[in-house]
Design brief:
- The structure is a single chain.
- By secondary structure, the protein is α/β, with parallel strands linked by helices.
- The protein has two domains: 243 residues, P-loop containing nucleotide triphosphate hydrolases (Rossmann fold), CATH 3.40.50; 59 residues, Alpha-Beta Plaits (2-Layer Sandwich).
- Strands 5-6-7-3-8-9 form a six-stranded mixed β-sheet, with helices on both faces. A five-stranded antiparallel β-sheet has the order 11-12-13-10-14. A three-stranded antiparallel β-sheet has the order 2-1-4.
- Helix 7 links the parallel strand 6 and strand 7.
- Helix 4 runs parallel beside helix 6 and helix 9 crosses helix 11.
- It starts with a helix and ends with a helix.
- It binds adenosine-5'-triphosphate (ATP).
- The site of adenosine-5'-triphosphate has 13 residues, from strand 1, strand 2 and helix 2.
Length: 326
């Protein structure tokens, strides 16, 4: 087993060297000490994950799960108590790596006396972007996020959603390879959310790597190649598109009586039968639905309820965080 782990680790590093991996996080822990007695909060606990170049990777989890702390560790704003993080093949606090990163914090707090254009120009200069390209990008991004009419106005006069839009432009002005967004949908109206979805898809099409955390499962579901579920500082599960499709295919049928032929919970050819009070609950995939219902009707058993999974991520999320044994 030990040799297998070592081999896996070597493979991880080789992939990183050849730039297939944008983020590598290896057994990372982060503790905070709070209060005069130095009580310990374990914000991140033994998280190992890798994000491949060109992927859209989402992190979801309840409030206080450790999502923002993990993103701050990736950005190098705080250091892990234990474990190793590599961003674009370098340490997160390496300046060369910083200029290739774009970041939107959870609550953007910019100098309010600057306009959105001044803010973006500042970011572009710090990142060493060609001044000619800077002007083009400023216009393009302000237009894309639909705030070009307010580009010269001071940020102190912006609404929450406008600050968020300016923050997204700020994160992208230097055309970074890796974009880390903490709650990017926060404060955006439905039009703004749609713009952001289009923006993420455009960035993905251009080969960028995007990592974001969000509570809006709908957006996470439609954008991400992989989704990590965090709870109590731990990474409980990583889902891919196939997991979502499998879940979407799930059907739950409630029959009015418990079949006498079923002595206990049973699994027959992928169809699961369970007792719930006097009823039978059948869980199967959509293509088994017709046969399962026909069989019940043939035996004169009435179908009381039929549930077809329409929010696969929500279901997988709720199951994961309610199952403490995971
Ligand atoms: N600087 C800090 N000092 C002490 N505790 C902290 C600090 N930052 C985060 N924590 C604690 O770490 C835990 C994880 O916080 P974090 O902000 O990462 O959660 P989150 O998943 O982003 O939550 P939310 O969805 O509410 O934004 C929480 O218990 C929080 O109180």
């Amino acid at each position: 087993m030990a040799w297998f782990c070592s081999l896996l680790f070597v493979c991880f590093y080789l992939a990183e060297v050849f730039s297939f991996v944008s983020i590598l996080c290896d057994h990372v822990f982060k503790k905070f000490r709070i209060g005069v007695r130095g009580k310990i909060v374990q914000a991140v606990s033994d998280v190992s994950v890798s994000v491949n170049q060109g992927d859209v990777f989402g992190i979801i989890g309840p409030n206080g799960a450790g999502k923002s702390t993990l993103l701050k560790l990736f950005m190098g704003f705080i250091k892990p108590t234990f474990g190793k993080i590599s961003i674009l093949g370098k340490s997160p606090d390496n300046p060369q790596c910083r200029s290739r990163l774009g970041y939107l914090p959870e609550n953007p707090c910019f100098y309010e006396h600057l306009s959105a254009i001044e803010l973006m120009r500042f970011s572009a200069e710090v990142s060493g972007l060609d001044p000619k390209k800077t002007n083009e990008e400023i216009i393009r991004l302000l237009k894309f996020m639909n705030i070009e009419h307010a580009g010269n106005r001071k940020l102190r006069g912006y609404s929450k959603g406008m600050v968020q839009r300016a923050g997204i432009c700020f994160a992208l002005i230097h055309d970074p390879e890796l974009i880390i967004l903490d709650e990017p949908m926060s404060g955006l109206d439905p039009v703004g959310r749609k713009l952001l979805v289009d923006l993420v898809l455009d960035l993905k099409a251009r080969g960028k790597t995007i990592l974001f955390c969000s509570h809006i499962l709908n957006d996470v579901e439609r954008l991400c190649d992989r989704i990590a579920i965090m709870h109590n500082g731990e990474l409980k599960k990583i889902l891919n598109r196939k997991d979502l499709i499998d879940q979407e295919n799930q059907v739950c049928i409630r029959l009015e009586t418990f079949s006498k032929e079923l002595s206990d919970d049973m699994d027959i050819l992928g169809v699961r039968y369970a007792k719930e009070g006097n009823a039978t609950i059948i869980s199967c995939s959509r293509n088994q639905l017709k046969d399962s219902v026909n069989m019940a009707l043939k035996h004169g058993i009435r179908v009381e309820e039929l549930n077809i999974s329409t929010h696969p991520l929500e279901k997988l999320f709720m199951d994961t965080i309610s199952d403490e044994s995971v």
